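Entry type: protein chain
Record version: 2
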Amino acid sequence: MKFVSSAMLGASLATLLTPMVCAAQSLPTRSIPAHDLPVPTTASPAMQKVISLSGPSKAPASVPTTNEGWNKRSNPNPAKKHQTVEMLLARYKLAMREETIAGVHCYVLTPTDAPKTNHGRVLVHFHGGGYTSGAGEAAVGEAIFVAGATRMKTIAVDYRMAPDFPYPVPVDDAIAVWKAVSAKMPANKLGMFGTSAGGSLVLSAVQRAITERLPVPGAIMAGTPWSDLSETGDSYFLNRYVDPMVYQDGLSISAAQYAHGIDLKDPRVSPIYGSFTGFPPTLLLTGTRDLFLSNTIRVDRKLRDAGRHSELIVYEGLSHGRYIAGPDFEETKTALKDIATFFNSNLAK
């Protein structure tokens, strides 16, 4: 019998694995033939029409470099936006007031007919917009939808944004409001939610709350979170040109303005690279055509690996954030029902 020393075995394994390592360092790309992408017949008729009218995905001709520019882009007609907000408030039977909480401008939404079981339950909302768009009333729509569906008091945080206020200011504002709210009532009756950058801000706020030993929300919803600001993840490429969202020369600029020199894979700005230990029950929403599908799936995996409760819902045919397209869409009604069921089941009464 011939014996092989451990040194010889190690050398042999190294020889065998070298081609595999080299291949992993220079993985080939797969060329996909050009083809037409049909409108999904599994979406509602109204959503099918929206999808069919979506133009080709392409980077904008120019991207704002100031907060004033971003505000004009996200809310070009403030008077019309205000009319829409007023209409939604009436439709969902909500009262809205502006309030400064811990030095941060907020909108407080209160259902006029909240059930007794919701007394003391409060949701804190962080809006989307790439950390650059959605100031003022421009992004309270999602907060109105969720407050209306859950019949829970909702605080929409109008946090400061890049480029004038890059990281850590948005997270600082989120934490300041959270400290103030959680100091007045049991955290297990409090929830956080947001979509896109707002969903990522929820994750960052919870990670920071855990690090600073602050109260943790009873439950959170992170809709299609921008959990990785770098172009990492399968759907960034799989759904390129499928989702109207564009990363290169689009989102990448917002990412750079927010990170302000921090590496885009730093967990401070991309929470997917941080710890999910100690997270509360989490609802994750995305769609099959979402550019951030992988961002969302990867968060679900991190939560499960950390032994935390995660509920992942992937909506058929929907691109980024389109589950909140509008109150009359069947997809929005379904998503709001899912969100309301989740918070009602996971927040203390």
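Comment: The chain has one domain: 79-346.
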